[in-house]
Amino acid sequence: QVQLVESGGGLVQAGGSLRLSCAASGRTSSSSIMGWFRQAPGKEREFVAGIRWSTGSTNYADSVKGRFTISRDNARNTVYLQMNSLKPEDTAVYYCAARSGLRIAILANEYNYWGQGTQVTVSS
After folding, report:
1. Is the distance from CB of 96 to CB of 112 less than 8 angstroms?
2. Nearest partner of 83 among 57, 65, 59, judged by Cα
3. Residues 80, 17: contact at Cβ < 8 Å?
4. pLDDT, tens digit, for every residue of 83-100?
5. Among residues 10, 37, 41, 60, which one has the least CA distance to residue 109?
6. 21 with 10: CB under 8 angstroms?
7. Residue 75 contacts by C-beta under 8 Å, 6 or more apart in sequence?
8. Cross-strand pairs, 12
9. How far is the C-alpha of 70 from the C-alpha of 50, rounded, in Å?
10. Torsion-angle region of residue 24: left (phi > 0), alpha (psi -120 to 50) or beta?
11. pLDDT value for 26
12. Which of 53, 60, 64, 45 is nearest to 98 (CA)?
């Protein structure tokens, strides 16, 4: 089992920044790929960004490229999502997720472990 705990959400004005953290514990050998997803009210959960623990390789959704940065701290088993130039449409609950394997999957059902989510609200 892998436990994931997110933190860092909150309320911010458009154009502002937030940094989300996801601390992983437990059988982290089963979490070679970490992803961030988000879900807005009435919408499906969507991929935001992903990273491979071993190499640091990343992948981003087109909607956040150039604004969001995913990174990891292997010593702390923690993944971060730095979000800059936030827009009202970025408002959602953000989830951290983990899966085994080599591919940074973009479908939510390919991830085995999930955090509880953290709310991000961007006001206009």
Report:
1. no
2. 65
3. no
4. 999 999 999 999 999 999
5. 37
6. no
7. none
8. 122
9. 7
10. beta
11. 85
12. 53
